[in-house]
Amino acid sequence: MFDSISTRLTNIFLWADTSLLTCEALSEILEITHSRHLLVVCRDGSGLLWAGGMEYELELGKCFIFKPDTALQISNASEYPLSAYLLEFNALTLSANRGQPSPLLEGGEFRVIPFTRLIDLARSLYENKEVEGEAGEYGNHALFQEIVHLVWQSEMKDKDDDATQSVKRTIEYMKESYTLDLTHSQLAEMAGLSLRHYSRLFLKLTGKSPIEFLIEQRLNRARQLLLTSRDTIQEIAGSVGFRDPFHFSRSFKKHMNVSPRLYIHLRKNNIRVISMQFLGEMLTLGIKPVGAPGLLLQGGFLGEKVDGIQEVSPSVINPEMDRLEALKPDAILTFDGHHYESYSRIAPTLSVPWSLPWFERFRRLAEWIGKSEEAEHWISAYYRQVEEVKEQLMQRLVGQPTVSFFWSRGLPQTLQVYYDMAVFYRDLGMKAPPSVSRIQGLEGHPFKANIPVEEIADYAGDHLFIVVSRDQDSLRAMQQLENTKEWKSLPAVQKRQVYQVSDDWLMEDPISRLGQLRSAVQFMKP
């Protein structure tokens, strides 16, 4: 008889004991020891469970199996009590394993469905654990075998029932059914998971909450329709699942940083844009603005590319509104919200934070005008040239010389030292002098600072670049600096490794940055 059983079963699992663990609200960590296999069934509340170097979320709907002598710790940091049934059992091996390994031997996290039945069975075993007589023992054995059957059927590692796969299926469903009024609860129910478990897995897979992901799917489709359909913005909003066009506009601007109307304008083939900032970015992406401030138009590295662009004001922060309005722009680009309200009365206006990293600003502008591919192509080409310049510098320079960058602004008493000069310190990876390097190591450090002329030696590197503006006062102040003992004593001065450069080196657009890169290798010598 035993032989015939052994041909059908690999293992038999024998219930040994059941206890009820309770953790009061905000309780300290509890240690659990056990010499047998252990099944933990959460009954009420939620907490954390640590075992074998892993952390698990202990909550209603979950159970766990651990091998004998696995050290367990449970904590309850919530404001509600936590309780769980602890079922100990032994495993009897009947024959060599010929099929799928038993989940009760492998252990881990399980989500049994229906979980209410599992709790009922565990409670019955707890209430009847003191039963006397063989009939009662067989009754408890039968209850535990049903638990074994439930756990096996709902084994978490089975791909068909795996929670991750269930969430992935809801994600695909959302991509196809984004126009429906799907709720977080509905999606969790579709996956057969608790809201908390579903949210955690969804965030892990997408980096977003379910509602954020749903809105993203709707907005992606809306972006296509805004450029290809002749429907109104209100009609497009309804067709992608937004019942309220105002909610659509707010969501679109929140995620795209531009309104639907401005998004359409920015994608026009012959857009008439005024660049109160970001002139070089527009030119790099093949868009020639109709107007820009004189300060930007004077950029030496831009050269003939600015021919035909109208000057609308001398500076980027003091616009002449009449001149802007006369150009009848489709859109206006500004930064940090400068004159946003005034510009918006003339044309849809896009404001970009100046604090964004340079390449992120460039990529964001490119995305808004539908030129992301062109931007990535330019960035890739730029970094290829960076590698070429690095190779040239390695051949020309001995060792690892330091580089410093100054602006003569503030002379004769002070001048400005730059802690963040992208071409040198990030792109080419050149070393800064110790005083500059120390500041660079501080989180949130300024990109430049005023220093007294007397301290210039503390910040000067083996190679020294200094911006000198073209006006007579700046040139005269620089000549005075060159006659001081502080300046003449600098090793870079004595080795003729000082390079006066124009204001063009202060520009941060792609064309100017490329020009700075190419010029750097021409200046520096051993």
UniProtKB/TrEMBL annotation:
GO terms for molecular function: DNA-binding transcription factor activity; sequence-specific DNA binding. InterPro entries: ABC_transptr_periplasmic_BD, Bact_iron-sidero_bind, Homeodomain-like_sf, HTH_AraC, RmlC_Cupin_sf. One of its GO terms (cellular component) is outer membrane-bounded periplasmic space. Residues 270-526 form the Fe/B12 periplasmic-binding domain. Signal peptide: none annotated. Its main location: other. GO terms for biological process: iron coordination entity transport. Keywords: Signal, Transcription, Transcription regulation, Transport. It is found in: Cell envelope. It comes from the Bacteria. Residues 168-266 form the HTH araC/xylS-type domain. The keyword Transit peptide does not apply. Belongs to the bacterial solute-binding protein 8 family. This is HTH-type transcriptional activator Btr. It comes from Cohnella abietis.
